[in-house]
Design a protein that fits this description.
Blueprint: H1 2-18, H2 20-32, H3 39-49, H4 58-81, E1 107-110, E2 115-117, E3 120-122, E4 125-128, E5 131-133, E6 136-138, E7 141-144, E8 147-149, E9 152-154, E10 156-159, E11 163-165, E12 168-170, E13 173-176, E14 181-183, E15 186-188, E16 190-193, E17 196-198, E18 201-203, E19 206-209, E20 214-216, E21 219-220, E22 223-226, E23 231-233, E24 236-237, H5 245-248
Parallel strand pairs: 1-4, 2-5, 3-6, 4-7, 5-8, 6-9, 7-10, 8-11, 9-12, 10-13, 11-14, 12-15, 13-16, 14-17, 15-18, 16-19, 17-20, 18-21, 19-22, 20-23, 21-24
Helix pairs in contact: 1-2, 1-3
């Protein structure tokens, strides 16, 4: 309060020097009307004459600040003493449906003078005129007139004048043209063989062996058609047929 009191006295002296007439008139009027005038009243009147708004007392400001500090301490104590709440993670929504992989209309080509060393994957179709040393997996059609060393997978496979060393797997049909040699197994839903195959043929649908076909391996199918001139070395079983001979003769 000492600093604030001195500040008030300095300000009062400055006000008296600036507006002595008004201050004296105020004191004279106070004496005539016998109204006790304190220093605070004089200070407030001087402030009003100068257009200065009266500010709250310093002690009031300090008390308000201390009260606010106590309130903050109380709130912090309540927060620290509150039990910790474990927020459970939200339950995951239903897994989104897996979108089917689309098949592109684009067709890639391995030209005659090109040799690819490594695996190939494509959402479209693939024409192999050159050579591929690696596994092949395409979503569309696979046309082979060159050579492949590796396994092949496609929706449909057609080989003409080709050489393939590896398994051939198709979700549709497999057509092996003349002058084609395949050293590997064939898996498909249907097959037409006019070339040479050294390996097993596992087809859930019909198999047609043309007159130029040469097969060294077992054939499993729903039905088989063997044209005159075809050569087969291996067993032939219609294990996928609607009628099972083993069940018919089980007695």
């Amino acid at each position: 309060m000492g600093f604030f009191q001195e500040l008030k006295e300095d300000l009062s002296q400055a006000v008296n020097e600036l507006v002595p007439d008004e201050t004296e008139a105020f004191e004279s009027a106070s004496r005539e009307t016998e109204i006790p005038v304190s220093e605070e009243d004089i200070f407030a009147a001087a402030e009003a004459s100068m257009g200065i708004e009266h500010s709250p007392d310093l002690e009031d400001m300090i008390a308000a600040s201390e009260e606010m500090d106590k309130t903050l301490e109380t709130l912090n104590a309540e927060i620290n003493s509150a039990p910790e709440r474990v927020i459970a993670p939200p339950e995951p929504d239903e897994e989104p449906a897996v979108e089917p992989e689309y098949v592109s209309d684009e067709v890639a080509t391995i030209t005659k003078m090109m040799t690819v060393n490594g695996d190939l994957n494509s959402r479209g179709s693939l024409d192999i005129i050159g050579a591929v040393n690696g596994n092949i997996r395409v979503k569309g059609k696979l046309n082979v007139t060159g050579s492949i060393v590796g396994n092949s997978e496609a929706a449909e496979i057609y080989a003409q004048d080709a050489t393939i060393a590896g398994d051939v797997t198709s979700t549709g049909s497999v057509k092996v043209g003349s002058n084609t040699v395949i050293r590997g197994n064939i898996y498909a839903t249907s097959a037409v063989i006019a070339g040479a195959v050294k390996g097993d043929i596992d087809v859930h649908g019909p198999v047609v062996l043309d007159s130029t076909a040469i097969v060294m391996g077992d054939i499993k199918s729903k039905a088989v058609q063997i044209n005159n001139g075809a050569a087969i070395e291996g067993r032939c079983s219609q294990c996928y047929a609607d009628v099972s001979p083993s069940n018919f003769f089980k007695d």
